[in-house]
């Protein structure tokens, strides 16, 4: 079930950036709903609104606790540690399924993390082994500082080291935490995640929701193998009517190849008949990469940095973006 208290994924900020900077000099025609994107909508790179991570629950949940089977009733939970919250709390009112109970019995240090919503209801967040527990202790120790920002930069530093961890729950948390990071932070990630791990996850059905962030991480890997995977996708996607995850793949292409990567995207933006959704993904990829950050003002063209010299690449930041804005959002730029 989707958590109604969840926040938009970090790549939704791409859309906010696009609307703020690309359309800041544009006048919407028609209703305001055609020009604004609700924060409750899914990120266009992800097509889903991610639920809170375990870190979010510990930092901002009403309460967050670890629980194990009650010694007097092995199929009910009892709270063993409070990570957030004060006062007496009733344990989560859930029966322990057989698989979880067996696992907890076999691993005496393990527990289950539960978070409490503002309405007082409990949510099962994750199964917690010893390494996961240590990661949560790190969150508790840094909670005061981390709460000062929507996404504190230390979060990506602390959790990136858990990518590919043997415990799938902790590896999943690492992906979720990195997925929260603004792209400016993500692009500075120093640890190279093995391409074999990323490629394997991209082929896994279980990691389907994480594919956008996996692709972005692939773009930060400078190996020939990573580049080949991205090149293959981009070459094929030109002819596809619908290219899922084109946005993150385009971002990865630009991250790896810079201006040359942008030039390759001409095939999408100059070919007649390309679906509007694909054009949207390309423009959004341009919006978050340092190679082409849009800035629109009344009476001025969209500007590209001096590092982009090719006329075709400059056009990506001018005519095509303006056409996209008009067609997609019912807006026109001021003369």
Keywords summarizing the entry:
335 residues; alpha+beta; 2 domains; two-stranded antiparallel sheet; 16 helices; 12% strand; elongated; disordered N terminus; disordered C terminus
- The general outline is elongated
Give Rg in angstroms.
22 Å
Beta-strand content bin:
5-15%
Which structural class do the helices and strands define? alpha+beta
Any idea how many domains? 2
Using DSSP, what is the number of strands?
6
Order of helices and strands: HEHEEHEEHHHHHHHHHHHHHE
How are strands sequenced across the largest beta sheet? 3-2-4-5
Helical content stands at 40-55%
What about the largest sheet? 4 strands, antiparallel
Give the overall average pLDDT.
75
Task: Give the number of helices.
Answer: 16
Terminal Cα separation, in Å? 47 Å
Q: pLDDT below 50 for ≥5 consecutive residues: which ranges? A: 1-42, 293-335
Concise description?
This protein has 335 residues and is of the alpha+beta class. It is built from 16 helices and six strands. The chain is elongated.
How would you describe what is shown here?
The protein starts with 11 loop residues before the first helix and ends with a strand. The protein has 16 helices and 6 strands. 45% of the residues lie in helices and 12% in strands. Helix 9 runs parallel beside helix 11 (246-257) and helix 10 (224-237) crosses helix 11. The chain is elongated. It is an alpha+beta fold. The chain has helices spanning 12-22, 54-60, 98-106, 130-146, 153-159, 168-180, 183-186, 195-203, 211-219, 224-237, 246-257, 259-264, 266-269, 276-288, 311-316, 319-329, and strands at 26-28, 63-70, 73-84, 111-116, 122-128, 331-333.
